[in-house]
Hints:
It is a single chain. 63% of the residues lie in helices and 0% in strands. By secondary structure, the protein is mainly alpha-helical. The longest helix has 28 residues, at 103-130.
Amino acid sequence: MTAFQKLRSGGDSDSSLLHLLIVTLLGLPLITPLLQWTSVPCTHDGHLHYHRITAIRYAWESGVPLARWLPDLAFGYGYPFFIFREAPPLYLALFPHMAGLPLPAALNLFYIVSILASGWFMYLWVRDVFGPRSGIVSAVAYMAAPYLLIDALIRGNQPESMALALFPLILWASRRFILKGNATSFLVASLALALLALSHNISIFLFVPFLFIYLVGVGWSGKIPWKPITIRLLLLFGLGLGLAAFYLGPALLELDEITISQSVSNRNNDFRFNFATLGEIFAPVKLADPALLNPPLLLRLGWVPVLLSLLGLASLKWVRSRERRGHIVFMALSTAALLFMALPISLPFWESLPLIEFVQFPWRFIGRAALPVAFLAGVPFAYIPNNYRVFNRNL
């Protein structure tokens, strides 16, 4: 069986490895700005990670491998940075650096892996529902999502880049656990959920409701009785969030003891000044203008994934599977809800929901919408007939 035949037929574990290799090759053009050994892209927060990783390394070499207090920050006065901020993304850059990589190369490697892993995990998730062809298309759509690349190449947001890669991993493993109840999927989903909580607290705040509703829908579409669904949900969220309780607990319980509110009180971080518009979201992605000293941060969904996702929604006409129909409807509704939260019309929700002000930027929801949009983008490719030929052998 040729590689192309395997791709069309779905194949086996060997073909899944081939498909992951294809996803990796298709992701290579996206990571070319990061293929540098001694320099990194000029990003909003990149310079901050240099200082933080250096401070962690000093603490590690001083015998404190997991420091919550960094004595050299804040001009030598010290700062309890890791009580409220995320450590795992910085450690993932620290370890290659301690192994001998220059710090710029270690940081670039982190973003390279986060971009490619986003595609790998997206493939696994979509493949399980709609097959490998859909999985490959969705993987590329997610890797190439403008928001995901902006995080890595413009914002320099290590924690959120890691979170965006973990989303499809959690969805893939937790879906398998809800449907089959196997221990491996449970451990993968729980540990990934805990890692998400430790990697980007804003993302866990936004993702948990999405994950919960999704898994309830998965159980319903799979006709799983409510008792095992309830038990599996309790186990998954109990272990996943319980493992991160040492971090999430103080972050929530000590809010009144610190001045973290100052992080949302200035104009740059006040949600009232950070809504997007439909015109911005659906505008074409343009080339960067190097002549601009401080270019505006414009968030897009991208025309290609949006058009493919609309075709995915239209595929409801041919879908007969209860689970597949449920996924399409849920992804479409999720996209609408997430984009709604990025628009000024959602202001009443922002002013009333507890803790949401710490999300800071309503345009973050555009990045979250990239996930269901990428999922839907792969759906039409599940319904291309298996005897379809891209190339005519007689040519």
